[in-house]
Structures are given as structure tokens and as C-alpha cells.
Design goal:
Blueprint: H1 2-28, H2 40-53, H3 56-59, H4 69-87, H5 111-114, H6 118-126, H7 141-145
Amino acid sequence: MHSKLLILLIVGIVLMTASLGWFGYQSFKTGFNAKAEPHMLEVFIARQLRHLAIPVGQRTTTNAVPLSPEVLADARARFADHCATCHANDGKGKTSIGQNVYPKLPELRFRDAQSMSDGEIISAITMEYAPPTCLRLEKENQKRISIV
């Protein structure tokens, strides 16, 4: 009985060590370079950590700004003024700044960005890690979240 448990424990430790070694190799084989595409495992872990870093109450928040043609026009203007420098007007991030930042900017038209809740987007825009051109410098919260 004890020998089976010991063998199972050793196999588990070997598998865990091999998994961590593979993860480390995959994560760091390209180094930290703004030009290199991060490994999909690195992207997955980063997104999960970002998701967990946002408190549940804030993550489940919905946009309180009512949708209207005026709000949409204002949001487009704000996006062009504050966000398009990095994300480009089409949301692809194919700008001189957007292609040279690390971590890579999310392509705003893809499922990963489109599936974020309003609260997650508001957090990403207003958190301290956002660059100064982002809307985090806006004084009025309603103007800041109207873009969402």
C-alpha cells in the first residue's frame, strides 16, 4: 500500500516538475521583446490574472450611460482622440505605438476583447497601468465610461 502511494507521489512530482519546466521554457524562450508575439499560454495566464485583479463588484458593473446617437458620437470622438493613437481607429492596434508595446494590445474587434464586461473595460481604461493618453485622465467619470 505504501509503495503504491510513494510511486504515485513520485510520478505526480515528476509530472508537475516537467509541466513547470515546459511552461518556463515556453514563456521565456522568446525573451521580453515588444516585437515578439507572446506564447498562447502566457496570454491566457495574463488574461486570467487581469480578470482576477478586478473586484467582482466592479467586474459585474454595467455601463450606466444610456445609449443614444449623441453618446455614440461622443464615444467615437473620444476613442479617436484618446485611444486611436495606440489601438488605431479600426481597433486593430496597427499603429507605430500599438505594434511596439509589451504586452501586446488586444485587438478590440476579436472575441477576447468583445467578451469583456463593461466593468472589465472600464477597469482597463481607468486603472493606473493605462498610459496617460487613455481616458484615466478624464475628470468626469460619466465622460470616461461613455466610451464603453
